[in-house]
Design a protein that fits this description.
mainly alpha, 70% helix
């Protein structure tokens, strides 16, 4: 009964916090039933976070993490508990950082770690695929390159979304100032916080922004290497196609010359009375005609190919 009463009180507290601090679109951002892009929004008395599968709402003294049974949330939960000092009942070693910054940093550590882990997993496979080209060109390697490029594009899209979420926050001084939830709750009187006083949170966000920028640079270099490899493959395929065209052209020229020789052979093979065939030296005549036909075929082929080479339609070395 006590556990049920605690659950009811927690639900009421969550409902009260959500109703007073968030907008309807913020609820959709953290609801696992909806797909959402990475976001880091500052609201009245709360921070809405959606990064790398972790969706949470952070208050000055508590945080709500949604879909706790998912793998990303379980991994992030261990890091968050360490940051806020819930591991083994020990206090956090960072006494000067408020609760909301510790919780936010835990989520950022999880997001950067997840991105770095994925990069380390697929980068060697992609580099190995690139090393095979263009000297070794097979259908299997081309399909592998296509799959790796799709994986890289998906990774770069995730990186740029996280980068944009952090950059949008860094560009808004008022939002960064409003992230001091603990200080805003404890503040008394009507004195408002200076919107430009946000050095601590700015340094925190910039530290992880640099890590994201480093991953973006690495991913962009890989994408450039893939594009260069694709260009080399296309050049290699164009070269092979040109060689095949030249071979086909040479074959056509030879066939034309052979056809001319066949015409001469057909003329002499007709049922005609030719005095040379009746003489005793007919075998010499037959040999001479055969040699002449062969020389004609060879000569026509050489002349035709030489002309094609002169007009840059053929190269002797295939």
């Amino acid at each position: 009964a006590g556990g049920a009463g605690m659950a009811v009180r927690n639900k009421k507290a969550l409902r009260w916090n959500l109703r007073n601090a968030l907008q309807p679109r913020d609820i959709r951002q953290v609801d696992p039933a909806f797909s959402a892009k990475p976001a880091l929004w500052v609201r009245t008395g709360a921070i809405v976070v959606s990064l790398e599968g972790v969706r949470a709402i952070i208050f000055h003294d508590k945080m709500y993490v949604f879909d706790p049974e998912s793998e990303p949330v379980e991994k992030a939960g261990k890091i968050i508990r360490e940051r806020i000092g819930f591991k083994g009942g020990a206090e956090s070693v960072d006494f000067f950082m408020p609760f909301e910054f510790k919780a936010l940093e835990g989520i950022l550590i999880h997001a950067i770690t997840a991105l770095e882990r994925e990069y380390v997993l697929f980068e060697p496979d992609l580099q190995r695929s690139l090393n095979h080209f263009p000297t070794k060109l097979t259908t299997v390697l081309l399909e592998e390159l296509r799959e790796n490029k799709q994986r890289l594009n998906h990774f770069r899209s995730r990186l740029h979304n996280v980068q944009k979420a952090l950059m949008d926050l860094l560009d808004d001084d008022e939002d960064m100032s409003n992230m001091y939830l603990t200080e805003l709750v404890r503040a008394t009187g009507e004195k408002k916080r200076d919107p430009m006083d946000h050095e601590d949170v700015e340094m925190l966000i910039e530290a992880y922004m640099q890590m994201v920028d480093d991953l973006v640079t690495k991913a962009d270099l890989l994408d450039t290497a893939v594009d260069d490899t694709e260009d080399l493959v296309m050049i290699h395929l164009d070269t092979l196609r040109n060689k095949l065209l030249m071979l086909d052209l040479a074959t056509s020229v030879f066939a034309m010359a052979l056809a001319m020789g066949t015409v001469l052979a057909g003329i002499f093979g007709m049922n005609l009375e030719i005095p040379a065939f009746e003489s005793g030296t007919s075998h010499w005549f037959f040999g001479g005609v055969s040699i002449a036909i062969l020389m004609l075929v060879f000569g026509v082929t050489i002349v035709a190919l030489a002309y094609l080479q002169r007009v840059d339609l053929f190269q002797w070395r295939l």
